[in-house]
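Tokens as discussed.
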């Protein structure tokens, strides 16, 4: 069994939810069956969307790489990042450390492809994730289309994400629901919750379409990787 390293704090509540999912998905009967996890919960990582939109990537890369190196020094043999937007810097991390860094986008695309008769996917994510085309490019490579919210709904969705970070979950539900309905009306056949803050709302929201949650998918992939099954 490999040691799992978690680059956390983006945001903290989503990181805790990720750890809970990893524990729930681990096939354990006693303490000793669970995964050895080392975590760096560092909320000082600069805003990932702001870095993408401004082009000022260096500070984010520096902090993420420092976290990754620290986790490897602590014994991590595979790394997971429960933040979709941070995957814009994935290749920088992979060049920095000699261990596998899971790609949540790749894992989500794999999960969506198991859904029957889905060719168009509605994306609920940060503006940074949308702007850099993380999911759009990944789905295009497998012959699928990623639909994104209109600018007004994307702006409202970012407001909702910030509300979740501030602990105001109920206030975030309206913008999420409206963006999801817009994507459904545009022809989406499934939804991807491509922001781990939005994942925190799924316990109190019924999506209008089949839904793939990036936080859940990453937890599943982490357990699979740690136990060595592909």
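Sequence:
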């Amino acid at each position: 069994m490999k040691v799992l390293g978690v680059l956390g704090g983006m945001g903290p509540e989503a990181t805790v939810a990720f750890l809970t999912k990893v524990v729930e998905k681990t096939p354990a009967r006693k303490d000793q069956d669970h995964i050895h996890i080392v975590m760096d919960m560092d909320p000082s990582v600069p805003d990932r969307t702001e870095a993408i939109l401004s082009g000022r990537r260096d500070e984010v890369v520096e902090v993420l790489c420092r976290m990754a190196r620290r986790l490897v020094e602590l014994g991590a043999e595979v790394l997971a990042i429960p933040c979709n937007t941070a995957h814009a810097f994935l290749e920088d991390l992979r060049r920095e450390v000699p261990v596998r860094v899971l790609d949540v986008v790749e894992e989500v695309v794999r999960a969506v492809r198991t859904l029957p008769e889905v060719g168009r996917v509605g994306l609920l994510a940060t503006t940074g994730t949308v702007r850099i085309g993380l999911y759009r490019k990944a789905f295009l490579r497998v012959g699928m289309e990623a639909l994104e919210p209109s600018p007004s709904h994307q702006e409202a969705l970012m407001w909702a994400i910030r509300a979740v970070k501030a602990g105001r979950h109920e206030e975030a539900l309206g913008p999420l629901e409206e963006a999801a309905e817009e994507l459904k009306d545009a022809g989406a056949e499934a939804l991807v919750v491509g922001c781990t803050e939005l994942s925190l709302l799924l316990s109190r929201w019924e999506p209008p379409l089949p839904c793939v949650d990036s936080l859940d998918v990453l937890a599943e992939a982490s357990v699979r990787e740690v136990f060595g099954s592909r």
